[in-house]
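dumping this here so i dont lose it
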């Protein structure tokens, strides 16, 4: 439940649907309903990413991000990406015990990730999976 509360906080979600038992179905329902423009603003505030960086990660133009008003909902793909990114950031902050350390890690080349910056990899689902796998290795003390 703590994860869902953090996701709700990061994305400014105020929905009774967050109380369902299975997190995956909760996120699926939120994705299908579409996140609001408030979610973008809230994610930027919590993540420390710029609007330009976020637009690249969720595959929409900066201008489109700017046009998301609080009452306008995002499409299903952008909503899904924003939830995936939120879950990734929350995991990273948990692994590193603070946002600043995770942010530094995201922005530096990583030998285990073919000398790529994790931030550059998370533009795709496969990249997110690679970064999540590396976070799990770090969390469990397995170095590659």
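and the seq i came up w/
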């Amino acid at each position: 439940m703590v994860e869902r509360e953090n996701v709700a906080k990061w994305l400014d979600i105020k929905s009774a649907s967050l109380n369902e038992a299975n997190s995956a179905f909760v996120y699926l329902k939120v994705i299908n309903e579409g996140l609001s423009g408030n979610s973008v603003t809230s994610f930027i505030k919590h993540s420390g990413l710029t609007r330009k960086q976020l637009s690249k990660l969720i595959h929409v133009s900066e201008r489109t991000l700017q046009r998301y008003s609080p009452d306008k909902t995002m499409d299903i793909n952008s909503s899904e990406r924003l939830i995936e990114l939120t879950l990734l950031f929350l995991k990273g902050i948990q692994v590193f015990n603070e946002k600043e350390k995770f942010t530094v890690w995201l922005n530096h080349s990583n030998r285990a990730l073919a000398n790529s910056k994790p931030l550059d990899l998370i533009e795709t689902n496969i990249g997110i999976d690679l970064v999540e796998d590396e976070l799990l290795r770090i969390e469990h003390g397995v170095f590659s």
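The chain has one domain: 2-139.
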